[in-house]
Amino acid sequence: xxxxMLLFAVxxxxxxxxxxxxxxxxxxxxxxxxxxxxxxHPRIAPYERPPFTAVNQDYVKPETVLHDGDEVAFIPPVSxx
Amino acid sequence: xxxxMLLFAVxxxxxxxxxxxxxxxxxxxxxxxxxxxxxxHPRIAPYERPPFTAVNQDYVKPETVLHDGDEVAFIPPVSxx
Amino acid sequence: xxxxxxxPIDQQALIDAVLRRSDGALALFAGVVRDHHAGKAxxxxxxxxxxPMAEKEMAKIAAEVAAAYPDAAIAFVHRLGLLHVxxxxxxxxxxxxxxxxxxxxxxxxxxxxxxTVPIWKREKGPDGEEWxxxxxx
Amino acid sequence: xxxxxxxPIDQQALIDAVLRRSDGALALFAGVVRDHHAGKAxxxxxxxxxxPMAEKEMAKIAAEVAAAYPDAAIAFVHRLGLLHVxxxxxxxxxxxxxxxxxxxxxxxxxxxxxxTVPIWKREKGPDGEEWxxxxxx
Lengths: 81, 81, 137, 137
Prior knowledge:
Chain A has helices at about 10-15, 30-40; strands at about 1-5, 20-25, 50-55, 60, 70-75. By secondary structure, chain A is α+β, with helices and mostly antiparallel strands.
């Protein structure tokens, strides 16, 4: 199945991409994608959990299981206001 | 000695004057002037103490003793803002 | 600082008076004439004031709230005379590097003004006019 | 309601949007770009946003705060893009018959926006640019 991963602000800068279409296995969780990112990006490697995770524009736990077509976003701590 | 009595808002309307020069005896207290007003104005007669009292533009207790030239004000509860 | 005015309050002037380059927060409060009070319709309010003492009390409030919130800059003006529904009777502007102080200072000013500043209002509605609050018996 | 804008925020439009004839109180909060942060000089801030989710979160905040303060009318807008010192990044206007609700609703909105709305700032100063808060390692 396919999911779309979104990255914002400093995370986008670290990873060097704002969006990725990813082919994943059934049962994959948001945190599994995060761990894949950690493996290749030293600046986030120390972080066992993403700052915030949203699936289809709702905040969720990173252990949330993804489904085909889901849009998963890793979100740095927000600083609006 | 002489003092000046000021009345505002509803108190001025009740008494029918906004200012009075009064000849008083030494040792007179603000509340003595209030009691004089009560004696002649039924709408305030039930009030043993004025709502607020100021002498020379400072809030004081109505038992405050007045001095020659003092300006004593009887002030209805304020409703600004 | 001018604390009393007979004209519509210039909100932007108050904001400009308080906001410094070091401020990240601006809290503003406006008291507005509303169309009802204690179950009665209101058309307008006349604000009467004992000016010299009101100015003195307002200066005292400004100084005391500034002392309590030293990072905040504070300005406020009360309007006097006849005001109609929707018009602001008081506007308070507080700026501060952080929002906590701006909100708290703003709130403190309005609470104190309502307690001690010698201003009184006479409400006018379809049934006539009367002083608000204490009216004797 | 429009929650996001790329242009300077029209504060008066927000006030006009909330103030009803029955309101006696208006509380307004503005977040402003200030000239320092964490000991560093700041010249400007770039606000980045994930628009669809930010709009969704802001609509949720508006609905939840309105439900918590049913007498209050609430409007707020966050500005995006490059802002300089003194410019407002967010303005929140809350009107209510009484001041307690207006203040509380206004405060509640800013606290929630700062917690959940996906907006991030990148500060620029004499020493360069950096994202505020979490930056990885």
